[in-house]
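ESCALATION

Customer reports they have been waiting on this structure for their group meeting. Please prioritize. Original submission:
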Amino acid sequence: MTGNGGFVFLTIHIKPSTLMKYFTRFLTATALLWLMASCQSFFSTEKTVVPLAIHTTKFYHAQMLCNDTLSDSLRIDISSLAIDTVPPGLLTDSLTAFINYASLLKTDGTLAPDESSLAASLLSENREVYSDPDFHCQGWTLTRKVECLLNADGLFSVSGFDFSFMGGAHPNTQIILKTFDLTTGLAVTVKEMVAPEKMPQLLKVVEQKFRKVYELADTASWQNNGFWFDDGFKLPQNMALTPDGLYLIYNQYEVAPYAVGTTELIVDADEWMNVLTPEWQRRFARVRR
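Update from on-call: job pushed to the front of the queue and completed.
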């Protein structure tokens, strides 16, 4: 159609159903583009948590106490951790308290201010014990080692090894484990990481590994084999997250007599991943080996 002035006007008729179809496609494409942009923005802005800068400290003290030729009647050997710098946003008070506990605990349950004070305390205690002529002088040994098991993505796992002989029938060994979420400053328990409905599955996996260590059949009685699982198998008191999975320690006297010793187990990374909550699956995926 030609109007005044020579312009041509073209009239196009589109069915309402066709118009709605194209409009729906436009909205769908727009929504997809928005979602992709949002996801890209989320992942590109996710911050990488810088590991703690740490170093190992060493302390050694040996001193003759008894009237003999032993130059190390009192021997104290401590290897511990010190934090150099704390990245912004991380909280380390609880971790520091754990390190101090594992390194500086005295026999009376209090903490020494440093390793030299701990050595002086043990020296004084030893001299007090053996000042009684009815007691035969014995050398004392204290060996402690604090180690980092995991330091990534705001997670820090640590172990504290303690070997001591201060007279008596035999020495004693204890290992304590803990995982800290440094973004909150709090220790993290296995109960928090594992999905509630998967806890029986984890317990079964650990029990199978425990039985394998001691070559016990699935139906073998705990009591008949010297273990103290009177109310059924249970997880140990000390567990920690590592790049290889879940590390577990059953200490001396925890579930069996002293002669059984310490039992160490690992729930490997794949088994561990299968029992975690979705949140902890994501976190463990970033630190696993």
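Sent to customer with the following note: The longest strand covers residues 140-152.
Escalation resolved.
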